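Sequence, please.
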């Protein structure tokens, strides 16, 4: 690329590309030590019922508190963790940490419908043959029932490894652990696997939610996803709700659940505890 555009351009671009590569290299080596150095954190974002505004559960979202670079968002290190294989250990750490926290919340805020926990799983992790043994161990250690745990995967996971994934779905089903399809609508969107795999929840990607009132086509897509999910008996969570009108729009279309900055940004466990307490009308 640089050659085709002449030498001058090459010289302009090279230093910054070099810096980028160096930064990446640093992140990569630091990431390996982040778990033992206890630099990873789990943030939580509420998932809310659009019908009655109640708190259905939380999604666990990892953060990295880097000693020099501060709080690093997952988009900057999850891809690196996936490349290097560290993602399996990272996902497992998040699962353990978040299950422990949910177990505490369920104890602290007993309710007729206990809170659920959604955890993001990379494809590398989801396809592991001993995945359910690992989950069993964590559920056992944290005294949490499988029915309150949901795993979020993306469409690509289903396509890359359909055979082993089908087996894992079966094992998860025996434990009442539900699987959610994250970022729905952004991937291959082959609808055949909605029949093939027992998915419980579709999470409509926020790109459809953000232009909902401006772009008629987005409203049509959301309407279609909702109708299809209803037909298949699958629940729907709309991601990335930022405004009152988006929330009302989705509610009027019959979308059951929502998540987004309008309700709350992802927050640390302490802030989430206060938020749950206020939802239940309790003091902490
Ligand atoms: P995701 O699972 O689709 O999570 C939703 C993302 O949207 C989160 O970004 C959340 O902070 C953001 N979000 C929520 N509401 C709004 C909104 O109203 N507006 C906007 N603009 N954004 C909103 P976050 O926390 O930066 O995470 C990014 C992605 O990183 C996640 O997307 C997920 O794919 C991945 N990720 C996060 N934690 C983990 C983890 O523990 N393991 C794995 N494998 N992936 C993770
Ligand atoms: Mg997710
Ligand atoms: Mg998503
Ligand atoms: Mg995502």
């Amino acid at each position: 690329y640089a050659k085709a555009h002449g030498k001058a351009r090459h010289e302009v671009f090279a230093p910054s590309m070099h810096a980028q590569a160096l930064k990446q290299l640093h992140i990569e080596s630091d990431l390996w030590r982040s778990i033992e150095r206890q630099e990873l954190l789990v943030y939580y974002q509420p998932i809310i019922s659009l019908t009655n505004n109640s708190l259905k559960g939380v999604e666990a979202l990892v953060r990295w508190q880097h000693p020099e670079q501060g709080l690093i968002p997952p988009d900057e290190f999850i891809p690196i963790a996936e490349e290097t294989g560290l993602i399996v250990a990272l996902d497992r750490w998040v699962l353990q940490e978040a299950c422990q926290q949910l177990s505490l919340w369920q104890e602290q805020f007993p309710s007729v419908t206990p809170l659920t926990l959604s955890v993001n799983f990379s494809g590398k992790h989801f396809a592991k043959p001993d995945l359910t043994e690992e989950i069993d161990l964590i559920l056992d250690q944290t005294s949490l029932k499988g029915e309150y745990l949901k795993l979020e995967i993306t469409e690509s996971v289903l396509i890359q490894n359909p055979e082993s994934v089908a087996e894992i779905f079966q094992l998860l089903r025996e434990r009442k652990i539900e699987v959610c399809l994250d970022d729905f609508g952004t991937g291959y969107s082959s609808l055949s696997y909605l029949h093939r795999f027992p998915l419980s929840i579709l999470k409509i990607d926020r790109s459809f939610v953000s232009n909902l009132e401006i772009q008629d086509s987005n409203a049509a897509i959301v309407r279609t996803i909702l109708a299809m999910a209803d037909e298949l008996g699958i629940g729907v969570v709309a991601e990335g709700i930022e405004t009152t009108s988006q929330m009302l729009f989705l509610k009027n279309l019959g979308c059951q659940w929502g998540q987004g900055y309008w309700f709350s940004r992802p927050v640390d466990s302490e802030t989430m505890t206060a938020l749950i307490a206020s939802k239940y009308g309790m003091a902490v």
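The CA atoms of residues 151 and 208 lie 22 Å apart.
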